[in-house]
Amino acid sequence: MGDVGLFGPDSVTWRIHADPVMGIGGLRALHLQALHPLAMAGIAQHSGFRADPWGRLMRTVGYVTTVSFGTTEQVERAAARVRRVHRPLRGVEPERGTPYRVDDPELLRWVHCCLVDSFLGTYRRAGGRVPDADADAYVAEQRRAAALVGLDPDDVPASVAELAAYFDDIRPELRATAEARQAARFVLLPPMPNRWLEPAKPLWAGVAGTAFALLPRWARRMYGLPGLPTSDFAATLTLKALYRGTQLIPAGYRYSPDAKRARALIRAHQAEASSIAS
Q1: Domain that holds residue 108
Q2: Tell me: the pLDDT tens digits for 200-222?
Q3: In a domain, 170, yes or no
Q4: How high is the pLDDT of residue 193?
Q5: Dihedrals φ, ψ of 92, to 5°?
Q6: 94 neighbors 41 (Cβ within 8 angstroms)
Q7: Is residue 77 in a domain?
Q8: Is residue 72 part of a domain?
Q9: How confident is the model at residue 30 (pLDDT cuts 50, 70, 90)?
Q10: How far apart, in whole angstroms, are the C-alpha atoms of residue 144 and residue 267?
Q11: CA-to-CA distance for 264 and 193, rounded, in angstroms?
């Protein structure tokens, strides 16, 4: 099968991350990450997302895709680049004057847990089948991704229960700063990359609004933004409809090239295992 990188065809990560609905999971993660004041300060002061929101989004998507499906060399190169960019970044959170550094393990752990919780939770709520044992396996697999940015895997949640306990423990440190609220509004209605895509603004707002509504209730309450969707039931129905809608798209268009490669390797792996078993 060649170099299958960090996870491989028998991983839960490949099964989940290959699905297009992960885009909504990524938007949910952005809203959740912004509730840590120091993480939000780092995003506001160093990411340049306001000047180039689509470029910033594509770079993040590219990193997650590479870590998920890339070869060992591609993964290590991408991770080294991220560590190199993060290392010198420092700042001060403006509302309380708290200093921070972007590569602080506490902030890296927060960002990691938001991604893992959002990808897994979104996929399951959409209708993706992930038994509890596989969900725990997915959280454990993601410790490999955590190690890439400089975290000790032993300091990162290794199960769904540990992930939930992490969020319970960190909630007293979270709050929606003015920058977080501004960022949420910006994500919901960003400038389109060109005038031809302006008609797509309502569609984007619907998708981004669904991602916001998928946040835990305590997170939505922290934002306190009127006019945004807040119904868990409606959010789940919308997500399921979007998920089923993507299933109608031909596979050749539904998946990215990396996801298509991963799916082909999964099928080959399953066929090989079946052949050995018989």
Answers
A1: 12-269
A2: 788 888 888 899 999 999 999 99
A3: yes
A4: 77
A5: -130, 130
A6: yes
A7: yes
A8: yes
A9: very high
A10: 23
A11: 33
- Residue 7 pLDDT: 93
List the Cα angle 37/88/152 in 5-degree steps.
70
Under 8 Å between Cβ of 103 and 87 = yes
Angle (CA) 165-147-111 rounded to 5° is 50
> Mean of the per-residue pLDDT values for the chain?
89
Evaluate whether residue 276 is within a structural domain: no
Instruction: Name residue 10's amino acid.
Output: D
Split into its structural domains, the chain has a count of: 1
Q: Three-state SS for 97?
A: coil
Q: What residues contact residue 217 under an 8 Å CB cut-off, 6+ apart?
A: 232
Check residue 230 and give its pLDDT.
60
Confidence of residue 57 (pLDDT cuts 50, 70, 90): confident
**What is the reported pLDDT for 173?**
97
For residues 75 and 119, is the Cβ–Cβ distance under 8 A? no
Query: Which tokens sit at 239?
Result: 């997500």
Taking every pair of Cα atoms in the chain, the longest distance, rounded to a whole number of angstroms, is: 65
Place of tokens 């089948």: 129
Q: Alpha-carbon distance 104 to 250, whole Å?
A: 43
235 and 214 Cβ atoms separated by less than 8 Å: yes
